[in-house]
Amino acid sequence: MKLLKTDVLIIGAGGAGMYASIAAAQSGKQVILADKSLISRGGATVMAQMTVAAAIGHEEADHWTHHLADTIKSGQGLCNEELSSILCKGAVERILEMKTWKTGWALKNNKMAQVMAPGHSVKRCCYVDFLNTGPAVSRTLRGIVAKQTNIKRVSGLHIIELIIEQNRVIGALGLDVECGKYIAINTNAVVLAAGGLTRIFSRNSASLNMGGDAYALALRAGAELIDMEFPQFFPIGHLAPRLVGMDPIMWDPFRYKLGGKLLNGNREQFIEKYGAKDGETYTVSRDLASYAIIKEVAAGRGTPNGGAWLSFEHIPNIELEKAFGPIIKKLADNNIDLTKNAVEVSPIAHYHMGGIKVNVRMETRIDGLFAAGEAVGGANGANRLSGNAISEAFVFGELAGRNAAQYVSKKTDLTIDKASSILAKIMKKPKKDIGSNNTANPDQVTTIMKKLQDIMWKYVGVIRNQKGLSRAHDLIHNLNNNFSKIYQPDNTVYNKKLMDWLDLRNSLLCAQTVCFAAMNRKESRGAHQMEDIPKTIPEYKKNQIVEMNNGILLSRWEKVKRLPFKVEKNICL
Predict the structure, then answer these.
(1) Are 510 and 528 in contact (CB under 8 A)?
(2) Which of 198, 324, 431, 452 has the fewest Cβ atoms within 10 Å of its own Cβ atom?
(3) Over the stretch 411-426, which tens digit does the pLDDT of each residue have?
(4) What pLDDT shows up at residue 283?
């Protein structure tokens, strides 16, 4: 086992992780930026093709307090308003900083272009044109990271476990995928920036590495999670025709730029039947849009593949070409002609509102352990406002990195012997199935993952009920039992079987946690839609906190943190 030492370890190298590493490095600390895939290529940021919310007031008069009011409204009473205010105020500074870094934000009249997005009161969301927001942001941050000589970038490092001593993080265990050897990292501070768990649902917009690593690492380390019952489902993920080489969530920016019509299988507009009053702009919140589509399908008014129609057929071709730019050719390569045919869309798991419980410094209750980006819970409440995801990656990433660098602790001491002892406890299962004479088939891991995704989509998806959640709980328990009986693949060079095993270990724990939290919230609120308890109940206007004690999940309810604030007068920069 090899031992590395650093001041700050950043786990996850998407937008939040890279911003955290930059902030920590600029504070003069030695940083290891680790990702189990390629630096800047994994996670959600690079896949984001839509918008970034910031009240810069270039398109319309705006102020960050208006952004905060919209965020709190979208959160259905559960936003930690201290965190939400940090997000909304900080987004302005971070977006303008990214502009100086030549990100390539779309311009209008020599100012940053901003568009309306679901749940916003003004045109507030910035973007890089032609679905390039995420790639442009990632490219920019990757360039800034490369200029920091005190950042050691390590791709292909699969973090297995955090090492805790007397309620203080002292390091981490990881697998170097390239050489197949285990690594121990001695550090004074850790930032968990490997957020996202949407891969645990069968229909998702996630990359393969978004199976809940940050949440599982935090939970096993003794940190608390918050609002885990609230995955967010993107309402218009691409369903049909088959789309190759393009993100399934690509339609939203064009929908609100052009006014795409959302229609049921009878080609009727239907969103207003479910309480929305926004006509053809469809700026309705994501939870309501997802609910409406699922209900139309359940009522027999879905499209042939079980979704809704998204139609741009009423838009002149010249406007389509102007809005879509080179995307028109990519669509044509996929046999999609928007002037002639609508596409089928459906809700898909897209984001997770819940996450690691932190204070305003992004600190967990474990000394030296911080979180950033989607790994953080609390700021979004029961439903995330559109455009806030990349904003929180920037804001929380910078804050976590800066505070991790300032963290003062006693010198940590992690030895190879100590790390090896902990590793042995984790990787202790036999190399053969229990009761079997032959080596187990490692493809069992793939089978269990597929079953887990199907269970989560069927019972813990857009619309839930108590019976279904109880069924999911039992089925996940059975999958855990099956998982405990299959062998752990040997650590060899580029061993995908072992990586899948490690991924499944985290995903099972995350699925169990989401289901557990969902069973406890006996109401409908935001993205948590219970068909047998359709009302929002005042008693549950609280945050649910989950922790793990000796392998057992425990929960409690906590009063929502409110922040007295005044909605300031709009200004235009």
Answers:
(1) no
(2) 431
(3) 778 989 999 999 988 8
(4) 58
